[in-house]
């Protein structure tokens, strides 16, 4: 019997037992669909996490350093700045401070305040925000703040060195804050007031949060909101701490390094430097990077993927056992046919190939339906979980097809070998 005849016989056997074959395929269909949906879901989750960390800023190290009382003889901030400029891997350093209070921000008739209710004044357009989440974070930084935090200027310019050095009353707005205060007007060279102090707008940052809809899960909603919050900000020169923070030194800094490989080296250097200038009895410091959190998140996702993969593998194992069971039944039903073939000279190899082809064909057809169900399930899960259209990758599709055929061969092997080992005389006696 050649290969073509074996395929025809397998097709005939499957078509003559349509109901039984369909039920046998069901396990493969469910298993493969589960594999495709779960793997695609994990990939979608990784995409969401990647979008989140890219928005937070890449290749940056956050440093918190402070002393209490008059215990320190050095200006920690200035010393840190000078030291970082000596390191090869550092491309920028900026204070990353913020204003502790919640000063009222005004532009003409529009007001942003943390505690006011949204209302419309009788004399004009009066907009105030009742939710603290709408109020912008006011940062204190230098000319490297945008670079260090991956902000890109969309209008005007960023802070300059002289703005900080001369304590110029200028500011750069986040995209959402600019939209709140100016709607469709160009904010550049307009003047806003912060607690009555005028600040000229010199630039607007490009939005980081537009389209930041990462899904409907609680975690995805939290990440989406975190990204959008990045646009609700105002950047002032770090020297403005004298106006709003009683001239207290800034304790938060951000260090931008040239690539992810430099993070570990620069972090080690900063640890050594800060431990040398800050006495633990009179001060403290901490160093962390988004990359560290990202690596931890990636490890957690990898564990989740392995767990989900294990569940899908169990489904496939059950489907494979079903294939083995039905092939054993087929061998029993066709024992007499096998005896006749062996009696007229069929080789064991021919019997093995015939039953393996039949098992692989059942799994292959089940695999096609399983891939189809997996695609439909992935579209539904992607829309419900991430608010977007997820499509399984070509690699997953090819792997699923290969797995389905492999399952047929693996679980069909034992019945095929058993059939080929039947003695002709014994097989011909079978009823």
TrEMBL record:
<protein>
    <submittedName>
        <fullName>Putative ABC transport system permease protein</fullName>
    </submittedName>
</protein>
<dbReference type="GO" id="GO:0005886">
    <property type="term" value="C:plasma membrane"/>
</dbReference>
<dbReference type="InterPro" id="IPR050250">
    <property type="entry name" value="Macrolide_Exporter_MacB"/>
</dbReference>
<feature type="transmembrane region" description="Helical">
    <location>
        <begin position="351"/>
        <end position="377"/>
    </location>
</feature>
<feature type="transmembrane region" description="Helical">
    <location>
        <begin position="307"/>
        <end position="331"/>
    </location>
</feature>
<dbReference type="GO" id="GO:0022857">
    <property type="term" value="F:transmembrane transporter activity"/>
</dbReference>
<feature type="domain" description="ABC3 transporter permease C-terminal">
    <location>
        <begin position="311"/>
        <end position="424"/>
    </location>
</feature>
<dbReference type="InterPro" id="IPR025857">
    <property type="entry name" value="MacB_PCD"/>
</dbReference>
<feature type="transmembrane region" description="Helical">
    <location>
        <begin position="21"/>
        <end position="42"/>
    </location>
</feature>
<keyword id="KW-1133">Transmembrane helix</keyword>
<keyword id="KW-0812">Transmembrane</keyword>
<dbReference type="Pfam" id="PF02687">
    <property type="entry name" value="FtsX"/>
</dbReference>
<keyword id="KW-1003">Cell membrane</keyword>
<dbReference type="Pfam" id="PF12704">
    <property type="entry name" value="MacB_PCD"/>
</dbReference>
<feature type="transmembrane region" description="Helical">
    <location>
        <begin position="389"/>
        <end position="414"/>
    </location>
</feature>
<keyword id="KW-0472">Membrane</keyword>
<dbReference type="InterPro" id="IPR003838">
    <property type="entry name" value="ABC3_permease_C"/>
</dbReference>
<comment type="similarity">
    <text>Belongs to the ABC-4 integral membrane protein family.</text>
</comment>
<feature type="domain" description="MacB-like periplasmic core">
    <location>
        <begin position="21"/>
        <end position="270"/>
    </location>
</feature>
